[in-house]
Amino acid sequence: MTDTAATPRKQTLDKDLDKLVHVEEATSTVARGLVAPGLGLLFLALAAIFAATYVAGEPGAIIIIAAAAIGAYMALNIGANDVANNVGPAVGAKAMSLGGALLIAAVFESAGALIAGGEVVGTISKGIIDPAAVGTPEAFIRAMMAALISSALWINLATWIGAPVSTTHSVVGGVVGAGIAAAGFASVDWPTMMQIAASWVVSPVIGGVVAALFLAFIKTAIIYQDDKISAARRWVPLLIAVMAGAFATYLTTKGLSRVITISGLGTALVGLAFFAVTWVFAHILVRRQSEGLENRNQSLRRLFKLPLVISAALLSFAHGANDVANAVGPLAAIVFTANESTVNATVVIPFWVMVIGAAGISLGLVLFGPKLIRMVGEQITKLNPMRAFCVALSAAITVIIASALGLPISSTHTAVGAIFGVGFFREWYTAHSKRRRAYLERKGVEFRKNGGVSPEDEEELELQNTSREEIARRKLVRRVHVRTIVAAWVTTVPAAALLSAGIYLVLDLMV
Fold this sequence. Notes:
Helix content: over 70%
Number of helices: 18
Shape: globular
């Protein structure tokens, strides 16, 4: 009787203990989800305290401290959203781990911001509104505050839905909305706005076309050659040299333009010099790396991994040098206006403001960046080192082309457009390339003769026997992500403008 009576109590105790375990597991899961937001809030508080040590006792100190916290929030969102374009392709191509990408991007983003971020920035974001039209310094501060809050909120929303958007366009929309609310439509430079709107189309189209052309060259000259290794020894050094020359030119014109001033001819000579030197050394490196490699696509991927890692670091440096102004430009305007009680189109950025921007971008990347990194690198289309190399190279070359033509450009639209271009080109090439089908027919003969083939070629042979209708159905680019991203691009400026106008009106009523 005793044993019979004890058994139910034991089972009840086990159930209660199981419930406690489940509650602990659920609590732990929820707690892990709150770590990143908690650290983000801590950073905002530290940014406000950091600002207070510099502006305590100065005119408008309270406003500056509040603006510093909002600027830190903006910087966190830029790190969470925009940096993914620089390292996402390398992560998706398995050229580096997510942790390694976060470390490299954080270091080079901070270095670019602090070394080459510059001391002077246009606070009205590309001159799209007339500072004199805004009116009093107090109204101007409210306009900049509204622009900062609205652009940060919009980027936060875009990150949450998984859409990489242009932080520059977000700030532009915020400034436009606040400017209209403060001084009417006449305060906006509409021709400049039309140029910015044109970049919605120009940036991704040029980026996609350039990336597709490079991928077409790699497929034709290397991948679908019978002797892949010999073809790689001939052409990969040239591609690496083109990348080196492009990035040298890109960094000279964009990333280091505030540190040193070089003429157009000088910039071209720098690019050519890096191209020539890299070509020589790349020949030696590629020959050493290719020794003993099997004649298969997997071997080719190894040759592109190191250049891809270097390109991710350089893109991060250039991004930090250029886009830190998106986080701290309006904040610098508020600091200057509050201290001087006057409005100016360009101001000197205090070093402490740059530190907040650089630290915020890096921390936002580490805390919230993985989601967009995976989106850009893995979920739009499947990338390998060769495709990701084309994306990185396209990003640098497109900026150079656009700068030479005087066209406005978005690094985000360019990089994501390049990924679209690679994916859509693969869809077309898979269905229509006669060279590819001839190559696979030869591989089919080898398969039947030797009784074996590499996994990559086996996948290609399977695709060869697939009808064009089935290939079209499989789609190598996920359309749902394309629609989400394009919709976010189109709505960024008007959404940020409407939000900013509303915030300005609220701030105006509170005064």
